[in-house]
DNA sequence: TCTTGACTTTGAAGTTACTTCAAGGTTGAT
DNA sequence: ATCAACCTTGAAGTAACTTCAAAGTCAAGA
């Protein structure tokens, strides 16, 4: 049996996050001691660690809840899991593409200024003020 | 003079966003008519468009406020502008690297399952449950 | 035993950048 | 006159937490 801080250390997240997951019902209510402290067993901590790993992969709380539900039904087919992973991968890839476009624009802006002149002559602000910007 | 919806259309953002920017003081309070409607001139709309372009580049509201302040001082050197752009570019690049790591992990997970078996045998959930995960 | 510091509890509010909603007033065209 | 489409405000909702305040608990050392 572990206190919330011990569980947090083992699972690799703050105690406040564990309380939060309980509050939003991502995790079941923890067993309580007579002092009203939450106590966790190894199995609880493993589930929590599973949640943290999925969150680190960028899954939303709702998606993690789906994953947990799927993991709790060992006999059903795993298409659902595959779909969740694929969906997440697609959204990550899309976000990467957006950010790459962004980075390219920022680099372009950067090349419009050598830092050695007053703002009045700054190509960056000129570009940002240019109404033709949105065409680019 | 334009109403808020007209200004919004010209600047390319919802009217609610303009009100929001005013509320958080990113933009000055708009001039009001006797009907209490907000009215905008071309210069106001240009400033709003500038804000929208910077936001589209991923600058936070605070950073946009900095950009506006800098743009309002045409005689000071433009190092500050350069720094803001560089900082933003670095954070975008960092985020891209994080997401690429994420995508690689998701692809790795994907390869652990061919979708043709029950969850009990699913390599994805096995990997997510594996305590050695965090080493990877 | 007392104290001290580190833990625990709760509910509420703060974070970011908006969007949505409710309830009501204004405008312009028919 | 009436109708749609606009405008106003303040408040609440969104995601996923984090931080805070106020108060109770516990373990160890003097």
Automatic annotation (TrEMBL), chains A, B:
The residues covered by the HTH merR-type domain are 1-70
What name is this protein filed under? MerR family transcriptional regulator
Q: Which domain of life is it from?
A: Bacteria
- The scientific name of the source species is Salinisphaera orenii YIM 95161
Instruction: Please give the SUPFAM superfamilies that the UniProt record associates with this protein.
Output: Putative DNA-binding domain
Q: What is the lineage of its organism?
A: Bacteria, Pseudomonadati, Pseudomonadota, Gammaproteobacteria, Salinisphaerales
Arranged from A to Z, the UniProt key words for this protein are:
DNA-binding, Repressor, Transcription, Transcription regulation
Q: Does the keyword DNA-binding apply?
A: yes
Q: Name one GO molecular function term.
A: DNA-binding transcription factor activity
Recorded hits in InterPro entries, A to Z, give: DNA-bd_dom_put_sf, MerR-type_HTH_dom, MerR_fam
């Amino acid at each position: 049996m572990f206190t919330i801080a011990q569980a947090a250390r083992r699972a690799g997240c703050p105690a406040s996050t564990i309380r939060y997951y309980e509050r939003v019902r991502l995790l079941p209510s923890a067993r309580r001691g007579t002092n009203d402290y939450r106590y966790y067993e190894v199995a609880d901590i493993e589930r929590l660690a599973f949640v943290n790993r999925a969150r680190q992969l960028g899954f939303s709380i709702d998606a993690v809840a789906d994953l947990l539900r799927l993991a709790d039904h060992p006999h059903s087919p795993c298409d659902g899991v595959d779909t969740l992973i694929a969906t997440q991968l697609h959204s990550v890839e899309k976000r990467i593409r957006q950010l790459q476009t962004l980075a390219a624009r920022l680099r372009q802006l950067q090349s419009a200024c050598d830092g050695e002149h007053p703002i009045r002559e700054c190509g960056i602000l000129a570009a940002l003020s240019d109404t033709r910007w949105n065409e680019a």
